[in-house]
Fold these 2 entries.
Entry 1:
Amino acid sequence: MKFVDEVRIYVKAGDGGNGAVAFRREKFIERGGPNGGDGGNGGSVVFVANPQLTTLLDYRYQQHHRAKNGEHGMGSDCNGHGAEDLVLQVPVGTLIRNEQTGELLVDLSDPGQQYVAAKGGRGGLGNMNFATSTRQTPRFAQDGGKGEEITLRLELKLLADVGLLGFPNAGKSTFISRVSRARPKVADYPFTTLVPNLGMVQYKDNLSFVMADIPGIIEGASEGVGLGHQFLRHVERCKVLVHLIDMGAEGEGRKPLDDFNILNEELKKYSEELASKPQVVAANKLDLTEARERLGPFTEALRRKGIRVYPVSCATGEGMQPLMDAVAEVLFTGSTDKLFLEMPTTRRLATMAPVKKAPAKKAAVKKAPAKKAAVKKASAKKAGAAKKAPAKKAAAKKSSRKPVAKKATRKAPVKKAVRKAPVKKAARKAPAKKSGGRR
């Protein structure tokens, strides 16, 4: 079955039926009055998300869809029959846009989700609804309303949890065929995959997720080179992206690091949000000798950026389990520790900090003998001071008379102050004794 993920269609809802103009005419009943019935409602155009569908192929060749009109009203108070809605089945994950304005109308991402794209016209009222006490014979009725019409563009985005990205012939189809039951076409030439492939991966502990394999992306895909980047819409819903790098790529100037940088540049040109999603880097084709020789420089270049590389071989299955464990951890827990992105890089720097400070501690230990030398010098100075002390004392004994004279002159004012203090206290106490005698 051909895979179609984008179509342009025209939808038209049904018109409502016109109301009837009729009067009651029966034997022995004169002037029975108006009895025209109402018209029926027109059918609406409704889109329903069907999980059994995987392509928009049905709308590639049938692009005009019209719902039925409602029946007109009839006499004898008979209303017209309303038309049934036109139900259009689309795959889950279909986006419906207005073709003229480009506005996104709805995203049918849930199974069974419905959306009314064009509402049917309302049926007109018959003349029996316009009869009044002053207008008992209305000879007119209301026409039915017109149904809505619009031109839509349907875009399909596959619902997948993990997306495989890489250059053509990087081994993406072999990868998805090994981890799931999908059996895409595998060949030894570029652009083998022309349409996206989905595979259900059964992981440990009854956990499972959907993986999407899209056609290869090359340099200049944003400008239409190769198959372009229109298939990138199918990995916009993915939570994890696996970058499969061809380590055995052949060609003039072809290097694994250049392929990695080109792939990220094309993602940024398509969508900044898509380029910021968690990326698991896998170096494929390690079963080749030249691939193992290129692994060392490629791993070292990405290690400087804080990105971990998972070496694998999709042909032999080597290294597949660690890679799937890293993908499952990001998908089910949201942790990116195994990817060595921003947070792991800061942790690595934090752990490396004590290692840098270690030499400083050793230098401090080496300087310790210098402190001991300073202590020795201090003790030597004290010893020298102690030797000079007797000489100073001897000089002091010789000039002992002069310091005594000085001390006597200094203490003289103090003795005078002591003699004057009692005189003042006695003068103050004298009045107190006189007052005591009078009492």
Entry 2:
Amino acid sequence: MILPDQTVDDDPLEELHGLAITAGTEVVDELIQRRPNPSHSTYLGKGKVEELRMLVQEHDADVVIFDNDLSPAQVRNLEKEVKAKVLDRTELILDIFAAGARTHESRLAIELAQLEYSLPRLKRMWTHLSRQSMGVGMRGPGEKQLEVDRRLAQKRIRDLRAELSKVERRREVQVASRKEAPTVSLVGYTNAGKSTLMNRLTEADVEAADKLFATLDTRTRRWAIPGWGTVLLSDTVGFIRDLPHSLVASFKSTLEETRQAELLLHVADASHPNVFQQISSVYAVLEELGIEEKRTLLLLNKIDMIDSPIQLNRVLDRYPNAIPVSARQGKGMDALTEAVGQVLGREFLDLKVTVDPADGRLLAYLASKGEVKARDFESDKVQIHVRMPAGAMGPVHRWALEITPVQRFESGGLAAKEDDRGTGDESIGGPANHDMPPMGNESFDAEIPRSSGEVA
């Protein structure tokens, strides 16, 4: 159903069609209705419900999937009318996640989200059962099966929340303890090409299927940036429009890599007709997670699938600082790696550290935490030219004989100014650019990306 305040494209059921295919169904027909407001009892109008019943009968359909969220009463009434199982958008997404979860952590998150979704829908599931007797010597009708199930579900929800809370604390400690390299996290709409980009950048072998929610668990790989150093690149679960709130809350521990990352790479499918809506949906989920103010590089992926330069320039006019790339063909990778190096360079220092030759502890620390560029050995000291994170300087200040800055990585070009840090306006192609005026259409060259990503 399309309500008056909804903006839809030529094919409003395209995404639902993809979700249904991902869930393993065969789509046999579709139905759309425009109404000023839903029916309280059946969501659709009376005439459309009859039309839906006839479609189900004609195709001998097993299930009806709505691209809307339905109340428990609406689901029950619709199932009585159309004589088929009825799923709403949230239940379909939960089913896809449940089928694709692989790790213990993601399975806990899915089970919690499913139970929280099902709890208010337990009513009348057991109306075919009479009241239970309470055993020998117990008078009265006892409890309904519904009350027993509800109590069991509530206890399981409490147990899952407690277990996920422990997992989240462990993940926070685990991620925070990774000081050897900064973390860069891939985020974006589902099927935007994040896993393909990760394989391209890190030569990993993670699954990169052309389907929605191919990735449900966070994977982290080392990414060597030429002329700069090594970072940890994380691939996370894809987002989607109207992602269930319970699912977002359950996956907070899985998204810990994103929450603690120094930089987000927001991958968008530039070839998709709804790219603007998808970008906005991702920012909405990031805001819900409380990480919308992190520095972000917007990547316009799949430029190899764009036939007309007008289509790409339409997106670049709104996000002039975005970087066009093709993860599948490797186009734009040089501009991307240069952008990441310059943005992360704000947090790094180029130093000459004078060390006592006998201080093996400090020598090992510098080698493990930074990039040692040169060593100059003298009779009573060693001078180490190192590039390292500013946050790892505590032990160096305590143990070094002398520290001399060589070159502070300037914040020109891609990186935002130091006094702008943390405001959210330094995002490259991020929300701060939403209302920027068009920058003019530049010619499209598939071999040479148009933008190297200047800062807003």
